[in-house]
Structures are given as structure tokens and as C-alpha cells.
């Protein structure tokens, strides 16, 4: 309990909130990193998954890519990128590593969602004379939306959590509080940093949960 | 030694046979530690997950809390998890194992529970009609039928654990992650690439091994599916 008290003391100390290495700055960096990576990975994964799901091809690829993604440690990818020529470009190694990490769940969920759309509904829409584009935007995407959003939510929460790894490679974000605590051998700071990240991750999860509850019933995940 | 030898180590190349031959023992130790941490974590996770899933199946009220708690555990970042356990275990391998156990719990409990729930009610009734007691029903009917789903969870949990062990480098017990970490600090390309590739190989090999075990343990699924 001493550690928790120490962590609380560290968190409530105003001096730890300001400045370059302060909680405020680290939180902003973390939010920025997560946001950029989520946006980029959505831009990459969703169009591919939607098109693949629409034409019904590449299913094995979409499902297997998520298994492969799990086997490759993000930390290893990050360090490999750092030591490669890309390493010289600021936070790009971190962003690329995190995007590579977030794409598989997005891709798999969106694809599964698209394929899960009732075939009878698709045939009915075709029979009504809908073009491919109308079918995609008017029928398939709305019906697949719950699973697509589940993928986005999983990716977002995992990104918040995994963005801490950037700190191991000298990047910014909340992970830096933890690694700095390790270097100072200050358990209370380590625990304080860990609590911050955990709360942040749970907050994002909660936000998505709330968003899903407020959404119209057809956009909710029935699973 | 007077002149620097002009080999791939001196030139700091990504792929380096020299590295493999001179650091064989270091690599071997790292792989062994990696495997030990993974196997210990997955086995402990399994030992905890099976009773939890069975309890959640048996008592409806237990399902909510069990799934809720394991899901919350899963959202805690690995770096944070290992550091949160620091006051409990001190700087030791137990931190990494405990963290990995928590992560594997989510995947294992979910999958085992899904498998148990998928056992058809008729099958259960038939077994009861044949005079099976609750324990025998569980051991001889329900758990075997839940095996395919449980094995799917076990495979995901194992592969994730192999990849997460690397983060254990922060506390000095990261198996191949230690080599990646130190290679990053010394800008040692061959070490980072070799350790990363070995990591992926271990993950893929573990996945294939479990797949084989699954095929062998559930012969009845072979004829129907695929």
C-alpha cells in the first residue's frame, strides 16, 4: 500500500505535471500518437477490407494477416525500424510500427463484418437493381458497421496500450514516465505512470462503449 | 588483435553469419529463457482459466464478473502491467510470468467458455440419461467437446505471449527481447534482426505445434470440417 500512496503522492504533486517531461505534455504526446496512428491505420485497413468484403475475395488473407500480426512483436518492429534508415525521421518509426500493429484487427473485423451481411439481403438489393456502389454504401457498410466499429475500438484501446512501447525506444508518450521511473529506481513513479496509461486505456474503452450505447440500435454490436 | 577485422560484425550489417556463430550461446540462452517464460505463463494461465470458465458456465452470476475482470486486465498495457507488478514481485522473472498469465486469461477464459456453452443440450441430457454424474459429465463430455474452441484460444494466447515476452526486457527478463533492447542501445543491427526473426519463428512453431496437438486430440473434427 506504501507504493500506491507514493504513486498517489507523485500524481498529485503539481511539479510533475508541468514541463517537457511533465504528465500534461506526455499525455498530449500519447493522445497525438494514438490519434495519428488510429487515423492512418483506418485509412489503410478499412478501404481494403470493405472492397475485399464487397467482392468476396481475399478472405484467407484478411483472416491470416491478423494471426501473422500477432506473432510479430511490435517492440521488435519498432527497433528494426529505428536502426533502419527510417530511424532518422523523428517519430515515424513509432508511427509505422504502431500502424502495422493496428491494421490487422481493423482489417479482420471489417472483412468479417462485410462477409457476415446476410446474403439474402444482398441478393434482394441486387434484384432491386442496385449498382455495386449503391449496394456497398447503402446496404453492406451500414449492416457491417457494428463489427467495423468493434474493430476500430479494439485497435484504439490496443494502440493506447501499445503506444507506451515507444518510450522503450526513446519516443514520447506516457510510457516515458514509466521508463524514467525505472531509471530513477522510483517505484512510485513507475506505478503512477502505469496507472495513468491503464486509466487512459480504460477511458478510451469506456468512450467507445458509451458511443455504442448512444448509437441507433442498428449500429450496435449485437454480439 | 591489432587491426579491426573486416567482417560483417565490424561493418554492422543486418544479416551476419559471424554473429550467429560467435554468439551462439547468448542466443541459445535467450531462446531458452523466452521459451521458459512463455510455457510457464501459458500453463499457469491454463490452470487458472479452466476452473474459471467452468465456474462461469456452471453459475450464471459468475460469468459477468469473470469476463469483466479478465477483459479489464487485458486492456492494461504490457509495459504498465510489468511495472505495476514490480512492488509485488520485485525485479524477477515472476513479474513477466504473472503479467503474461493475466493476458492469457482473457483469451483462454473466453474461448473455453464459448466452447463449453456450445455443447449441445441434447448431448448433455444423453450423458445424464446414461448415468453420468456432474464431474464425469464435465470431464468426459463437456471438456472434450469444448476442446476445439479452447485450443483456438490457447493458440492465440501462446502466440501473443511469445511476442509479449519481449517487453519483459524492461525488467531484464525478456528472453530475446533483452537482445533486441541491448541491440537497440548499441545500434547492433545483426543482433536485433536475428532476435526478432527468432521471436517470430518461435511464435509460428508454437502455433503449428499446437495445431498438430489439436488435430491429434480431436480426431472427430477432421472428418467433418475442412
TrEMBL record, chain A:
A Gene Ontology biological process term: transmembrane transport
Compartments, record wording: Cell membrane; Membrane
Record-annotated ABC transmembrane type-1 domain positions: 27-208
CDD domains: TM_PBP2
Alphabetical UniProt keywords: Membrane, Transmembrane, Transmembrane helix, Transport
Domain of life: Bacteria
TM helices/strands, residue ranges: 31-55, 67-86, 92-114, 135-154, 160-178, 190-208
Protein's membrane topology: Multi-pass membrane protein
GO cellular component, one term: plasma membrane
Annotated Pfam families: BPD_transp_1
Family stated for the protein in its record: Belongs to the binding-protein-dependent transport system permease family.
Protein name: ABC transporter permease
TrEMBL record, chain B:
Sequence similarity: Belongs to the binding-protein-dependent transport system permease family.
Residues in coiled coil: none
Domain of life from the UniProt record: Bacteria
Taxonomic source organism: Streptomyces inusitatus
Record-annotated membrane-spanning stretches: 35-54, 66-89, 95-116, 162-181, 193-213
Gene Ontology BP annotations: glycine betaine transport; transmembrane transport
Membrane topology label: Multi-pass membrane protein
Presence of keyword Membrane: yes
PROSITE patterns tied to this protein: ABC_TM1
Lineage, uppermost ranks: Bacteria, Bacillati, Actinomycetota, Actinomycetes, Kitasatosporales
Entry's localization field: Cell membrane; Membrane
Name of the protein: ABC transmembrane type-1 domain-containing protein
ABC transmembrane type-1 domain: residues covered: 31-210
Keywords recorded for this protein, A-Z: Membrane, Transmembrane, Transmembrane helix, Transport
Residues annotated as signal peptide: none
Classification via CDD domains: TM_PBP2
The keyword Lipoprotein appears for this protein: no
GO cellular component: plasma membrane
